[in-house]
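note to self: dont lose this again. the chain is below, predicted strucutre after it. 335 aa total, dont forget to put it in the shared folder this time
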Amino acid sequence: MKKVRVCLAGIGWIGSNHYFGYSQIPEKVDVSIVARSEESKTYLNTLLGLKWEVSKQYSSFEEALEDADIDLVDLTVPTHLHAEFALKALRAGKHVLVETPACTTLDECREIRVELNKHPELKTATGHVARHWPTSKAAKKIVDSGELGKIFYVASDYAHNVSQEQDIYIPRPRKREPHVTGRLSVSYHSVDLLRHIVGDVEDVAGFITDDASLALLHFKNGALGKVFSSGKVTRPYILSLQVYGLNGTIICAQEENGLRGYWHKSRYWKPEMLPTSVHHGKGTPEWKTEMQNVVDSILADKQSLCTLADGVATVETCIAIDTAMTIGTTVKVRR
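---
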């Protein structure tokens, strides 16, 4: 089997998990990395307890792009570099996986869309890993089957307590990344999950306090939606999903033993259980699933589960939400 030659640029927490995913499919990939300093190399050893076995090590991103042997560039660099590096990779003729968010401004969204239109032969992906959870995939399959009937409301909560989770993300010495996110912060994962289930959003409204934010969504198909976000809750992490159809309801939320999904077909408590997903974290199975999906899109010449264009559409929706929170009125999603 032909192997996809991957170069991983960005070797922090997310990058190490991407590497873990690739390490589970050695028959399909050959991995190289960009490591610019001894600090980066030392940092690798603190993450996941992995032994990093790579074919090549580049001292710069530009050096990697010049290597004709590289097929796919995987970008887990700081957020403010996502668009710049993705555009360089596309112009160099590389397939591209960009960690979320795909970019941060409308100008970047437009520039990426233009470049994607110039390179239809290239495969792309955005790292919205929640789409790859078994529970989410089962919910999407049910919705697509039509068994829920007309979907009229969806919702997702993205909440945790940032101050109590320092054990999850290992601090990196002299970290240089600025905090580049909108007011929804990383709850763009919730926005993307709802878009994945229902489709594109027409217009939005938003509200924000010092403790939480709330986005109201009006989808193009007429459905309504809501995203709640907070980093100050007193409870375990949650990225939930609620889908209400005229013929049934799906409720997915993190419980003690993982992400559980319930498919209610009547008013009685007799739900059909969806597949359970383990709690998202370091070295969990969805990283393999996500990396395999991207690699298979190249090998089989098909689209990934979340293309870069799809990731850009989620950013455009989140920018509209941020604007709505600023001006206090409904805002149309711009594309």
